[in-house]
Amino acid sequence: MKFQIVAAAVAIGAAIGAAGSQPVYLDTTKPLEERVEDALGRMTTEEKAAIIHAQSKFSSAGVPRLGIPELWCTDGPHGIRPDVFWDEWDQAGCTNDSCTAFPALTCLAATWNPEMSALYGRSIGEEARYREKDVLLGPGVNIYRTPLNGRNFEYMGEDPYLASVMVVPYIKGVQSNGVATCVKHYALNNQEYRRHTTDVDLSDRALYEIYLPAFKAAVQDGGTWSIMGSYNLYQGRHVCQNPRLLKDILRDEWGFDGVVISDWGGVHDTDQVISGGLDLEFGSWTNGLSEGMKNAYDSYFMAYPYLKRISDGVVDTQELDRKAANVLRLIFRTAMNQAKPSGSMNSPEHVAAARRIAGEGIVLLKNSGNILPLDLDGKKKIAVIGENAIKMMTVGGGSSSLKARREVSPLDGIKARAGKDAEVVYARGYTGDPVAQQDGMKVQDISDSRDADALIAEAVAVARDADYVIYVGGLNKAPHQDCEDADREGLGLPYGQDRLISALADANKNLIVVNVSGNAVAMPWLDKAAAVVQAWFIGSEAGNAIADIVSGDVNPSGKLPFTFPARLEDSGAHAEGEYPGNKEQLAASKQWGDTIKEYYNEDIFVGYRWADKKKTTPLFPFGHGLSYTTFEYGKPTADKKAMTADDTITFSVNVKNTGDREGQEIVQLYIADKKSSLPRPVKELKGFKKVKLAPGEEQTVSITVDKSALSFFDDRQHAWVAEPGKFEAIIGASSRDIKGVVKFELK
Ligand code: BGC
Known about the structure:
With 747 residues, the chain is of the alpha/beta class. It is globular, with a radius of gyration of 26 Å. Helix 16 links the parallel strand 15 (468-474) and strand 16. 28% of the residues lie in helices and 19% in strands.
């Protein structure tokens, strides 16, 4: 270690000596661009090529001669991933890399609270900083297009406006630590099935209105310092080599000055990547250092093959300079950031943040006869049933898998809250996939060899005479559940849970179902369950946060960031959208590597936009979520009858807490365009506010919008257009619980 410090000092000394004074790139009082230019001017072509590709699984080289440090990346996005070996995916086996696991991003989106996003970003950024990571690979903002996408749990739901609002504070919070966010997966990575070979195409309208806004907000409002190019293709070209997405839109239209990092193994071709707009190549499938070559990272597309094209005169160094400058800018913002704080790990504040965010994101979907919160007075018997009550959910799921310092299981959380007087009994009810190892981590051994009938019989016996039955099931982080690299095989719950839940409901009417998932699931037993709680994957404090909600210590205030369709066919991607790819091409495909086209025929009608258009009744609509108190809405008003394109308009509505406990309500504003030259959704979310109200308290909630809330993307003109005419502002407690409508006009 000592030697390295001396070596770095000598290198810097040499550089200083060469320049005769302190080089500009080391002078943090100088403007960033001057520093970048100065450093670039001192680098050889080889040094430039060395900083634009990986040198290990998660790091890229700096310029040792000039004292410019390496860049270290980490997954993301729910906690800081444990370290792997330099050159392999296996765990390095460190003892200092256990983290605080924060709730999955679906849960964060379900808080509808930008303050929770800021708290999340700040906290996870502190953990990244403490672990000396420079780039956090997240957050993810791909739009929830189908409930089968195995990675929906890592994203922020189906609505571009909600995701745009929620992503920005996360980015700012992380980056306040001198750690870059790497917003992913840009773009159109809306399924895991054949994620490397699906060639997406869609109208420009759907691209700009649905799939890009959250990325644009991340760039322009969040100021993200990096972005991750996705695996899939768009219009016939892999995204990491796609100039339309990476240059025309990201750089030219949005003014992005950060680094485009490839998803791990997302680059396929040297010529395309040189001109395609990517800056930093990671994870290309060489055999690392283990198999021959002077250094296998040198065979990356942007390493020797690139240098060879330069020395052969096939390409000049203009693009290389551009890429290296972008990477230098990122290094100066992160690894060489003199103002960065020191960070912290597993602090009580982080644990509290994880619990608070989880508490605000859990959604109470159903609560017949106000069975919740539990009445824990007196000696109560609570039957806790289900594998997810004891299963660790921070392990698995792919790259978001974590080594959590602690994870409170739902069973332990409920036991602790129920207290000594209560009798809490547990029965398994079903068994999921028996996995011993996932994502390089040992999985807890919860194997049980009994068959389904025996498990159900035991669970029913335990449930029969209980005061309450709390069923904790849903999906998990195994392949084909909520997990990277594969999609779900259907909307239904796996492992025979529907039969089990029905049997429990028959045995005891006080059945509370806690669904742990990052995706919508079918609930054929819904009428029979007294209450349903959507609990997501919520990390270290899972059990405590669930106990907070069912006990009533925390009043639920989350709302769904995506629609729970009643049937798969009620989702646009399945009804019209070619998911999971063009049928003829899939049928003709002989090998897994064949490229398959997928046209998003459902166009802009994603999620509730599709449900509204087709007038379907979702199982639970977008924006739905109950509370233990009740809210009464007054009649919404507008501050003017008509607005102009340079004007704003403010809608107001009085909301009163008419129950007997404090609660938070999320007031949602949807805009409807009554007549336009292109088809428009029935309504679109364009504003929301979460307000806390004491019992009896009334507040006026005001939301101001400008013409952007009235605009659509007109692909005929390649421009956002707000057409004069009649509009409606729709105030709702969900996308289907409409409280009032105000008509107004755009002049
Ligand atoms: C995932 C990324 C992740 C990367 C590094 C890829 O397989 O798609 O989201 O950041 O691996 O682990």
